[in-house]
Design a protein that fits this description.
The chain is of the alpha/beta class and about 425 residues long. It binds pyridoxal-5'-phosphate (PLP).
């Protein structure tokens, strides 16, 4: 593929951190104004949160959806819904957002890390199966960067053992596996409406489920477990206030109809980028899970350090000179190497709930995570946006091509 070599000064790419790369506009303003004029900003009395929940449930084909204050809160609600005993194990992935992990600890359960596919960074069914123990209470998978996990195989593993699956779909709005939306394969699906996600309210989250008992527990956990509308309401169990405000929900009601367009634009841009990057030395385009649609929260390439000395960090450094802010190694290190897990920093000096863990559950030896280390050594995450034009894509691709060629030749371009 011949890539047009850019001679113009660095382009300013649209950013998901401000209006250049967000779809917020008059629709959201009108709904938020309506919420303010109504004078009702709490979700317990207003209409926007209910409206958001109804339309989101319909959009993914789930029976129930509940809005909450963040994606982390959504994950916490899902864990609370499955109601682990202290010390129960929740299998999760070594490459994900911390917001998918700390709720497990707050709920007194032990995160048990499974290994990932070195080509996609998604947790593998084989590794999940290998981590199952008599104490496994749930499995949480993250559809990394918008690329679905192999849900057919993961559900087969989970169903064989009767273990509920929670899908962290924060990065994968609109993605499908075998024609079915991710987030609806498992018992519960969690979404985030944080600033940088496909659609946003600044902060916010959603939980979906088809199971009425899990739905009831999710709803209660968001609402201090107060039985609103019950004949004899009480605070039935330990729970927090994880409600969104009506302002957030009004914004989300404006955002939701824009989601299909956002997804389509991101996918089209990614397909174009695949073509533009063909033939770039040492750089391979994102792998898609077979029989799935990837919705590109980010566009992540793999950089072969045997072709490009220094690997992703070296390439990222070159790209920075072209004003392209990529993330080499995504989260830098496996989640289990973060201080909270390394030093078991939890409540005071107690180390609880790690004190309840079996040695195997907290065995973070590198030999158990070959896929994780190989993936993190190679991944370079490019910022991705629905507003990328042909010029932006040409600029990104030509910058990557020039940087990769220069580094591959040993820096003597
Ligand atoms: C963003 C994100 C979260 C956390 O969402 P917040 O809204 O930031 O709390 C959880 N998991 C994944 C995979 C995410 O990308």
């Amino acid at each position: 593929m011949n890539i047009p070599i850019s001679t113009t000064p660095p382009l300013q790419l649209p950013s998901d951190q401000d209006a250049t790369g967000r779809t917020l506009g008059d629709e959201e303003i009108a709904f938020i104004a309506e919420a303010i004029r109504s004078g009702t900003l709490t979700a317990t009395k207003g209409n926007f949160t209910k409206r958001l929940e109804t339309s989101f449930a319909a959009s993914v084909g789930a029976k129930h959806a509940y809005a909450c204050s963040s994606g982390s809160a959504a994950v916490h609600c899902a864990i609370a819904a499955v109601d682990p005993e202290p010390g129960d194990e929740v299998i999760t992935t070594s490459i994900t957002d911390m917001g998918a992990l700390t709720p497990i600890l707050f709920h007194g359960a032990i995160p048990v890390f499974a290994d990932v596919d070195p080509r996609t960074g998604n947790v593998t069914p084989e590794s999940v199966a290998a981590r199952i123990s008599p104490r496994t209470k749930a499995i949480i998978v993250t559809h990394l960067f918008g690329n679905p996990c192999d849900m057919t195989s993961i559900m087969a593993v989970a169903n064989k053992h009767g273990i509920p699956v929670i899908e962290d779909t924060a990065q994968a709005f609109g993605a499908t596996h075998a024609g079915k939306p991710v987030g609806t394969w498992g018992s519960l699906g969690c979404f985030s409406l944080q600033q940088g996600k496909h659609v946003t309210t600044g902060e916010g989250g959603l939980v979906v489920t088809n199971n009425s008992d899990l739905a009831r527990r999710t709803y209660l956990f968001i609402n201090k477990a107060w039985g609103y509308g019950d004949p004899q309401p009480d605070h039935y169990f330990i729970a927090l206030n994880y409600r969104p405000s009506e302002l957030q929900s009004a914004c989300a009601v404006g955002q939701l109809p824009k989601l299909p367009g956002v997804v389509a634009a991101r996918v089209a841009a990614a397909e174009r980028m695949d073509q533009l990057l063909a033939g770039t030395p040492g750089v391979s385009v994102p792998q898609r899970t077979p029989n799935s649609s990837h919705t590109f929260w980010k566009y992540s390439v793999l950089v072969d350090p045997t072709v490009i000395p220094g690997g992703p960090p070296a390439l990222a450094k070159e790209l920075k000179l072209a004003n392209i802010l990529s993330a080499p190694r995504y989260i830098q290190k496996p989640a289990f190497r973060c201080q909270v897990f390394r030093d078991q920093r939890t409540f005071g000096n107690s180390r609880w709930p790690f004190t309840l863990a079996t040695p195997e559950a907290v065995d973070y030896s590198a030999e158990r995570f070959p896929g994780t280390f190989e993936y993190l050594d190679r991944v370079l995450v490019l910022p991705w946006n629905e507003r990328y034009t042909a010029d932006h894509l040409n600029y990104l691709a030509s910058s990557i091509y020039q940087a990769a060629t220069k580094l591959a030749k040993g820096g003597a371009a």
